[in-house]
């Protein structure tokens, strides 16, 4: 056997090379030898293989130059020559398959050639996932009608993404990232134009993924990358025929494969223009499933990037609550239930829990809107950055607000006077007007003085914050801010305004609007039952006629004082007191406290009401009006709970209370 092998010295002599050169080529693998002891031995056929490899390499180098010059056809001829001389030339097979694959996207005639070249690579590299994925795409291309404007799409995407790449390199600059978000949003609009069922959802999804990332404790840079990915992960759909995307009936197997190809196509597009890997992973893997039955790579569990797991949940939720040609939209709770059914199989349960927590308030709002036709609050967003305004608008609309945007101070003023918004969100920097001047104008104008103004701005000094608040703003929130915090602040301001408008000026207690709002909020929390005590005074008209309205007001103040005292000492922390109007009041408490509080309130009123009468009237036990006797004021209470019945609004409580006069003062 040893006699058939050549020594390294014999190889050097045959090839007419220096011995040191042969040693180097052996170490690098260009010449394949067998290490025996301290020396090398070579099969006689290795000389022919080496010479073929060298000749093949020369043709491969020519092909690379042609391809770089845009001469794809010349490159193909050189690569074919390279492979015919040395079929094992892996880099030539790879480059040829890449050229065929790109041509197959626009010309079906190249699909068989691309498939053949890819399978040749799998023969000597069977575990190559990228080649396997490309074969899946080729299969879908068999079913996909040719799209003539691929080059136009590629050009548009590259023109948009290249500025984004510059933005993404400046990780600490908020303004630069705003530019990146704006560009990503433009890309999403291109997809929405093609797939109408995605229309308007990208901004909401970007808000959602940020909220989930915050709940899970992801870093600031991870969250920003996720927000960009939420805009662009479906860009691959631009290469899919609209007839398939909008097909109302059942999709064929080939059409399903076609749609599934969009994640790989999207990743390829963005990889070619150099987007960061954390964004590329979201684009490629947002349809993977925890059980490994997703696509395109069949990843399992923690192998799926966290960003892709987040986007999968948000994408699925968006599809569930949207109308499709083959079904209507699900409710918020219905969609969340569907997500939970897929937890551990399709979706990450941690992500679902974080998502559920992030939209808890939003879900409650949708429940209440579904039960009662509540007129939405109007919010005007004044910001010349489309992404910021769009993200806030999307978030507020999902919270049930009617949100509108304006990019200049002048257009904002026109809209404010025209639509009379309930609240204004104002960016401190406007292109045409000083925001301080706008705040002063709105706060001094009687028509707008009651409209709360929330100012948002990049972090400035404490003096800047004081200055904007002194100019008439009601709140100040520095960028970057959490959208959930912004919504919470908006709700707080609107509750204050509602209370100020609704509160009874005499007693300071909340009126009917706040009463109905409180009842609605409690109805939405199905885990807790509650009860209502409705209170009114007997013979109050006669008291007013005899003692006058000023004394009547003192009686109403006394009732309010008694209610506050009793609730403070014997009620719950979340009990509610309201003044419906006139001598009618309401207390909302837990069902178990209804009877006890009712008795305490009436007893305390009986004990203290005598202080509002003359001594003679108290001694007689009545007052005279037109010679007619009227008893000393007493208090009646009517009670009801939703413990054993469905109650959906204040009117239902009124109906039940009228039927159940469970305690009436003597």
Task: Summarize the structure in short.
The chain is an alpha/beta fold.
Descriptive tags:
666 residues, alpha/beta, Serine Threonine Protein Phosphatase 5, Tetratricopeptide repeat, Hypothetical protein af1432, 5 domains, 5-stranded parallel sheet, 5-stranded antiparallel sheet, 15 strands, 11% strand, disordered C terminus, HD_GYP_dom, Diguanylate cyclase, phosphoprotein, HTH_17
Radius of gyration: 37 Å
CATH 2nd-level architecture of the largest domain = Orthogonal Bundle
Kindly give the count of domains. 5
Low-pLDDT parts are 143-149, 361-373, 660-666
Note the overall shape.
elongated
- Cα end-to-end separation: 121 Å
Report helical residue fraction. Answer: 55-70%
Q: Structural class of the helices, strands and pairings?
A: alpha/beta
What is the CATH class of the largest domain?
Mainly Alpha
Superfamily (CATH H level) name of the largest domain: Hypothetical protein af1432
Largest sheet: 5 strands, parallel
Average pLDDT figure: 78
With strands numbered from the N-terminus, the spatial order across the biggest sheet is: 5-4-6-7-8
Strand content: 5-15%
Number of helices: 30
CATH topology of the largest domain: Hypothetical protein af1432
> Would you count the extended β strands for me?
15
Pfam families: GGDEF (PF00990), HD_5 (PF13487), HTH_17 (PF12728), Response_reg (PF00072)
Domain GGDEF: 528-666
GO molecular function, one term: DNA binding
Keywords: Phosphoprotein
